[in-house]
Write a structure and sequence with these properties.
By secondary structure, this protein is an alpha/beta fold. The chain has a single domain (about 30-330), classed as Zn peptidases (Aminopeptidase, 3-Layer(aba) Sandwich), CATH 3.40.630.10. The protein is about 40% helix and about 15% strand. The chain has helices at about 1-25, 30-35, 40-50, 65-80, 145-165, 190-195, 240-255, 275-280, 310-330; strands at about 90-95, 105-115, 120-130, 175-180, 205-210, 230, 255-260, 285-290. Strand 6 (about 230), helix 7 (about 240-255) and strand 7 form a beta-alpha-beta unit. It comes from Mariniflexile ostreae. This is M28 family metallopeptidase.
Length: about 325
């Protein structure tokens, strides 16, 4: 009888300890720690290089654009983020003929990625265009610090934050593609090549596209105000994406999200004018992040000294948090 009582006691203890494990799961990851690795100091350092005269305005097919893709590639190599293409080849080559006479030569998209650890076949694409408009007729270089140097360095910092998380054992459930596209300024050619000709990842398994194009400045409407950002397209294909975006901002960054240009009747038609549109036309939910136009838009005066780096830091952190949520939620977002 004593032996039976002892056995029952042991079984009860084992069951109790097992239950304790179930009711005390591993604490949630502190996502903010990774977001805080995105800093105005690093953004500024990168942008002063990327938007310097050395890159000659990054015109599609020109030598300055070739320097730009090498800069981007070298960053990914340095932080250990690989290419999704064979043999570590980061460049998706686009022939001159694809540009319909608008480029003097062939050009390249730059692709890097972090593989998902649970649902690797599902992909979040974060994009920014790497090109600008080159040199003006009078020899003045259009550095394109805001357009889209700001988006380019933001994307590099987001990738680095995800890589730090992965090294800590907190890699994303879904894969994340960091896509730097060329030829945006001459007609969204780089993103169209990726979606229409050579999608490295299945479009059917592409969950969403977060596109970053000009997020470093303040437009006249918001001068003297708190940090803000225009969001375009977040509710056009998936209300769930819009709700997630709003919730993430409320929890982490508290920006003033301005939907002025999301209006279907917006005369500027910004929804159709950046690289997210080539994903949206394939029924992939998108968000276009944008600070609005300013007096230096497409002028040599769009220089890195005019960027609001504190605003750029917080805006980049918002995009990181949104991508994190999309990459790690249990079910992929619903398409309406």
């Amino acid at each position: 009888m004593k032996e039976m009582t002892f056995l029952l006691s042991i079984l009860t203890l084992i069951y109790t300890c097992s239950s304790c494990k179930d009711t005390n799961p591993k604490p949630d990851v502190n996502i903010s720690n990774y977001a805080k690795t995105i800093t105005e100091t690093e953004l500024k350092e990168a942008l002063y290089i990327y938007a310097s005269d050395e890159f000659e305005g990054r015109e599609t097919g020109e030598p300055g654009q070739k320097k730009a893709i090498e800069f981007i590639k070298n960053h990914y190599v340095s932080i250990g983020v690989p290419s999704p293409m064979a043999d570590g080849h980061y460049f998706q080559e686009i022939p001159k003929s694809f540009f319909k006479g608008k480029s003097k030569g062939a050009s390249e998209n730059v692709l890097a990625y972090i593989k998902g650890n649970e649902k690797p076949e599902e992909v979040i694409v974060i994009s920014a265009h790497l090109d600008h408009i080159g040199v003006s007729g009078n020899g003045a270089i259009n550095n394109g610090a805001d357009d889209d140097g700001s988006g380019t360095v933001a994307l590099l910092e987001i990738a680095e934050a995800f890589k730090i998380a992965e090294k800590d054992g907190n890699g994303p459930k879904r894969s994340i593609l960091f896509l730097h596209v060329t030829g945006e300024e001459i007609g969204l050619f780089g993103s169209r090549y990726y979606t229409d000709v050579d999608p490295i990842f299945s479009l059917e398994n592409t969950v969403a596209n977060l596109n970053i194009d000009m997020i470093g400045r303040v437009d006249p409407k918001h001068e003297g105000e708190d940090n803000y950002l225009y969001l375009i397209g977040s509710d056009k294909l998936s209300n769930e994406l819009h709700e997630i975006s709003e919730a993430v901002n409320a929890k982490y960054t508290q920006l003033d999200l301005d939907y002025t240009y999301n209006d279907d009747n917006d005369p500027n038609r910004f929804y159709y004018r950046s690289d997210h549109y080539n994903f949206a036309k394939h029924n992939i939910p998108v968000i276009f992040y944008f600070n609005g136009v300013h007096a230096d838009y497409h002028r040599p005066s769009d220089t890195p000294d005019k960027i609001n780096y504190k605003f750029l830091e917080t805006r980049t952190q918002l995009i990181f948090h949104t991508a994190w949520e999309l990459a790690n939620k249990e079910a992929r977002i619903k398409l309406d």
